[in-house]
């Protein structure tokens, strides 16, 4: 579906009204596609993360080992290495049938389904190494899907729809994560209630999650190839695969590193969501250790957490439109850091449903706000459709460093300090990113950025 061409001022009023209606439908459809793709991106992350950690904890795996499992998120930090292949290469059959972006999207989702099914067959108690391999494959396929979805989103939406698209994308992304956390935990309990063993119940829970990836596949099939992507594909027609890959890789890196204060920008990208990632790594084990049941946690995450995520996502979209980019980043950065104190309070209060509901609400609401604003910032950094996937993958891979590597010792820190002090430390780790934000703002970094555009 292509955007309707603007009509001249001399056109009859009825024709101009019809054109405006067509444009509105076009934009709404694009935002709706981005929303469902956001759900598809958010769904697999927890299956190799927090949901898997609950499965492992229930299977008796040590807290230190659980913390080390943050390392299976390595593909999210290295995805920029194969993003040039997504920008430049064609997938046999898929690209010809569906186009440059959609072909890769359908292909990546098929592999993702297979990886989740492989993880479903694992047993954390007996073979943690096999579990790690399965989780690593899920993360790799999920990261590949993210590469394509991010490029599709940035290239699909016109400049004036980026804020609405980002709010919808992030809200749906968080819903996908909630489905694969709280939803998966409810499913496991439901399967157990039918008389199945815990191991079998977990297996069928993951099989169900694999089936839900098809929502993203259907969305990809119903979408249309972004016009910017189609033009970039036409511009490189006739070039060899090697030339396209090299240009995507070198162009993305060279263009970014040529920016003023590029290294400081990269450090800020790494650290902005670190406070959120550091606490999030241990949230599920913390709640289970505190004495809440799996269903207690799932019910509050799915109910209160879902509402907070939706409200927070669109609140972030409002802030991104209402305030300047640095002002929005200050608001999001401070909110997501301070929200960790609600878990310190919960650790002191103990098993209290209202305290848990408050902590989960604060976490999901502030995290959604911070994520929407952060996505707006990353989108503003990506401007060239020839290597959108590569450049955005580089930025989001760096953002995942905090969740993957810097957070890998969170389990040992929690054991050494206790839960109340651990979440206070989670607040303090936000300070370096705020210092960098102030420095970049002073250096005029944000003034040099235009609005996020395709």
Automatic annotation (TrEMBL):
Entries under Gene3D superfamilies matching the protein: MFS general substrate transporter like domains
InterPro entries: AmpG_permease/AT-1, MFS, MFS_dom, MFS_trans_sf
Pfam families, sorted: MFS_1
TM spans (from-to): 31-55, 61-82, 103-122, 128-149, 170-191, 203-223, 263-288, 300-320, 329-348, 354-380, 392-413, 419-440
Alphabetic keyword roster: Membrane, Transmembrane, Transmembrane helix, Transport
The keyword Cytoplasm is annotated on this UniProt entry: no
MF-aspect GO terms: transmembrane transporter activity
PROSITE patterns: MFS (PS50850)
Topology in the lipid bilayer: Multi-pass membrane protein
UniProt GO cellular component terms: membrane
Coiled-coil ranges per UniProt: none
Domain Major facilitator superfamily (MFS) profile: 30-444
Compartment(s): Membrane
Xref: PANTHER family: MAJOR FACILITATOR SUPERFAMILY DOMAIN-CONTAINING PROTEIN 3, SOLUTE CARRIER FAMILY 33 ACETYL-COA TRANSPORTER -RELATED
NCBIfam families recorded: 2A0125
Family of the protein in this entry: Belongs to the major facilitator superfamily.
Protein name stated in the entry: PAT family beta-lactamase induction signal transducer AmpG
Organism annotation: Rhodopseudomonas rhenobacensis
């Amino acid at each position: 579906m292509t955007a309707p061409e603007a009509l001249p001022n001399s056109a009859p009023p009825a024709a101009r009204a019809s054109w405006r209606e067509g444009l509105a439908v076009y934009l709404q459809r694009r935002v709706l596609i981005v929303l469902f793709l956001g759900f598809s991106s958010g769904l697999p992350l927890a299956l190799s993360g927090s949901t898997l950690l609950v499965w492992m904890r229930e299977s008796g795996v040590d807290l230190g080992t659980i913390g080390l499992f943050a390392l299976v998120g390595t593909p999210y930090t290295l995805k920029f290495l194969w993003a040039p292949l997504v920008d430049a290469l064609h997938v046999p059959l898929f690209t010809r049938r569906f186009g440059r972006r959609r072909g890769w999207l359908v292909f990546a989702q098929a592999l993702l389904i297979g990886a989740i099914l492989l993880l479903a067959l694992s047993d954390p108690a007996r073979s943690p190494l096999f579990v790690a391999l399965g989780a690593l494959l899920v993360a790799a396929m999920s990261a590949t899907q993210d590469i394509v979805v991010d490029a599709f989103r940035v290239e699909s939406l016109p400049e004036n729809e980026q804020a609405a698209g980002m709010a919808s994308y992030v809200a749906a992304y968080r819903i996908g994560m909630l489905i694969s956390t709280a939803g998966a935990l409810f499913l496991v309990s439901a399967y157990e209630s039918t008389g199945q063993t815990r191991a079998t119940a977990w297996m069928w829970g993951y099989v169900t999650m694999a089936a839900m990836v098809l929502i993203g596949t259907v969305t990809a099939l119903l979408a249309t190839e972004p016009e910017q992507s189609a033009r970039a594909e036409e511009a490189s027609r006739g070039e060899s695969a090697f030339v396209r890959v090299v240009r995507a890789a070198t162009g993305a890196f060279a263009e970014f590193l040529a920016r003023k204060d590029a290294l400081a920008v990269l450090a800020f990208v790494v650290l902005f969501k670190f406070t959120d990632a550091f606490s999030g790594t241990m949230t599920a084990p913390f709640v289970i250790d505190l004495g809440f049941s799996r269903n207690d946690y799932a019910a509050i995450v799915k109910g209160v957490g879902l509402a907070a995520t939706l409200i927070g996502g669109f609140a972030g979209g409002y802030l991104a439109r209402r305030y300047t980019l640095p002002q929005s980043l200050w608001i999001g950065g401070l909110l997501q850091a301070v929200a960790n104190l609600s878990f310190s309070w919960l650790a002191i209060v103990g098993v209290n449903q209202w305290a848990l509901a408050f902590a989960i609400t604060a976490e999901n609401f502030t995290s959604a706000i911070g994520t929407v604003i952060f996505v707006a910032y990353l989108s503003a950094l990506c401007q060239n459709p020839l290597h959108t996937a590569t450049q955005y993958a580089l930025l989001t891979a760096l953002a995942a460093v905090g969740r993957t590597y810097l957070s890998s010792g969170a389990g040992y820190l929690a054991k050494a300090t206790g839960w109340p002090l651990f979440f206070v430390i989670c607040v303090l780790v936000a300070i370096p990113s705020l210092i960098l934000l102030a420095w970049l703002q002073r250096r005029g970094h944000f003034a040099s950025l235009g609005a996020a555009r395709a």
